[in-house]
Design goal:
Layout lengths: L8 E4 L3 H13 L3 E4 L30 H4 L16 H14 L6 E2 L2 E8 L16 E7 L4 E6 L1 E4 L6 E2 L15 E4 L13 E5 L3 H13 L2 E5 L6 E2 L2 E2 L2 E2 L13 H15 L21 E2 L3 H6 L4 E3 L2 E5 L2 E4 L4 E3 L2 E4 L3 E2 L31 E3 L4 E3 L3 H16 L7 H18 L9 E3 H14 L6 H12 L11
Parallel strand pairs: 1-2, 1-7, 2-3, 7-22, 9-20, 10-11, 10-20, 11-16, 12-15, 23-24
Antiparallel strand pairs: 4-5, 5-6, 8-21, 13-14, 17-18, 18-19
């Protein structure tokens, strides 16, 4: 089966970002094919997803409130709690897809295996025409293969699936007598029961697993390279991300920091009072750790804080302060690599989790190649992916123009330097964004790059939308 058309668009992935792209493209009347490796939508939020790359564990809840996480076009149900669990989020995605009729437009159990520019290999991207297409090849679960040429590709394969282990590995880890897993493979608390568990990391997943281990393990240790600020899920009875007025995000960072620090001191005090190390950075200079459960468990002595791992010796773990503990299970919460298995590394790759994209969406060297949801916001990704897709749809319709490649590269470099000053140097922060300022930046791009579309082109688009797209019957299902 083949869906080939010079006006057709390809969407890779049907997770939270991919279905947002599908909804926007469908609403605009832009013909598209979407390929999803698993048999259902939802990506990471589909527990035990048969795509094989979901990292959701059974106890997972969102750490941004439902009102902030919801798509603008489809609010979450009022009966949902402020912080729904992953089963509720998956159901919300199901309802979203059904409401907009997306399922029949997604090719499930179909993996994209390659994406290459149309034409001769090695063509100079600077000389490639703006309407150059991409040849997308796929393979379904039965082994059937196909390919088609698309005028644009929207990459929405996620960035929390390719587990990153410590590099280099800790000395002695290869001969460690206990068990070692990455949090990506953690699903149920049963693997923690009756064991001496060490969790490495101080991010959201690390604190979740440490708290869970402290309920069922014989002993729980939480090790980290650096300290972190712990942000509760509620302040004054309201979700933390709803506690400040909208205008707050426009204030200077120093004022925002002062406000949040005061709120944290009142609500929970200094993290060092609970045995955590003093953070080596200012608040909001790193992605915050959101947890209302960690500090009480620390204060009750259910979790023991340790510095970073120095080495492994037999079944013991030796820490940087010289202390050692016999450990049965180490859970590495050390993040993920940004990777694209369908791209040749010489074409597109992200060494060190760095990929030079204009506004984290547009590749300046490859016209027609866009990335949806490749951002780490202080907030939820769903509204961001939705607005990114609207911007890309503007570009595809000819209603919005991008700057030239050189101007985009210059803007990328400026943003890189700004973020280096703003955040702690870490592979986690290479795609970091502040939610409200980033939303405003995308809105500005839509306004600043907009232009009047010639009436003939508008009429042509209206004509296409009025006609049933016969090629939809030929798209792979």
């Amino acid at each position: 089966m083949r869906a080939s058309d010079d006006q057709r668009v390809c969407v890779i992935g049907a997770g939270a970002s991919g279905i947002a792209a599908c909804q926007v493209l469908g609403a605009r009347g832009i013909a598209f094919d979407c390929f999803e490796k698993g048999s259902d939508i939802g990506g990471n939020w589909r527990y035990m997803n048969d795509n094989g790359v979901s990292s959701a564990y059974r106890s997972l809840h969102i750490n941004t409130s439902r009102s902030q996480m919801a798509y603008a076009t489809f609010p979450m149900p009022d009966e949902y709690p402020d912080y729904p669990n992953h089963f509720q989020i998956a159901r919300y995605f199901d309802d979203y897809a059904d409401h907009f009729g997306l399922r029949d437009r997604i090719s499930f159990r179909t993996e994209v295996i390659s994406v290459v520019p149309e034409g001769a290999p090695g063509r100079d991207a600077e000389e490639a025409p703006l309407d150059a297409g991409y040849v997308v090849a796929w393979r379904d679960a039965d082994g059937n293969q196909g390919s088609a040429t698309y005028r644009a590709v929207l990459v929405a394969n996620g960035h929390h699936w390719d587990a990153r282990w410590p590099e280099p590995a800790f000395p002695g880890s290869g001969s460690f007598g206990g068990e070692q897993i990455h949090v990506h493979d953690y699903k149920e608390r049963e693997v923690l029961e009756g064991k001496r568990v060490l969790v490495l990391g101080i991010g959201n997943s690390a604190t979740d697993i440490a708290v869970e281990a402290s309920l069922v393990a014989d002993a729980t240790f939480l090790a980290m390279r650096r300290g972190a600020y712990i942000v509760p899920k509620f302040i004054n009875g309201r979700p933390t991300d709803e506690a400040s007025p909208a205008i707050f995000s426009r204030l200077p960072l120093a004022i925002q920091r002062r406000f949040f620090m005061r709120a944290l001191r009142v609500s929970q005090g200094d993290v060092t009072n609970y045995g955590l190390p003093e953070p080596d950075h200012k608040l909001l200079e790193a992605h915050p750790t959101v947890s209302s459960d960690l500090l009480p468990r620390l204060g009750q002595g259910n979790i023991t804080v340790k510095p970073n791992i120095a080495r492994f010796e037999g079944r013991d773990v030796v820490f940087d302060d010289g202390s050692r503990e016999p450990i049965d299970l180490v859970v590495y919460c050390t993040g993920y690599r940004i990777s694209f298995p369908f791209f040749d590394p010489g074409f597109v790759s992200a060494p060190g989790n760095r990929l030079p994209l204009y506004r984290l969406v547009v590749h300046p060297d490859h016209p027609g190649l866009y990335f949806i949801g490749l951002a780490q916001p202080l907030g939820a990704i769903m509204p961001i992916a939705e607005l990114q897709s609207e911007w890309v749809a503007d570009i595809l319709e000819g209603a919005c123009e991008l700057p030239g490649a050189e101007r985009m590269r210059a803007a990328i470099e400026r943003e890189k330097k700004r973020m280096a000053k703003r955040y702690v140097a870490s592979s986690r922060h290479t795609i970091q964004v502040d939610f409200d300022p980033y939303i405003r930046a995308l809105q500005k791009e839509r306004r600043g790059g907009s232009r009047v579309v010639p009436s003939t082109r508008r009429a042509a688009r209206r004509s296409r939308r009025a006609q049933p797209d016969q090629r939809d019957r030929e798209a792979p299902r």
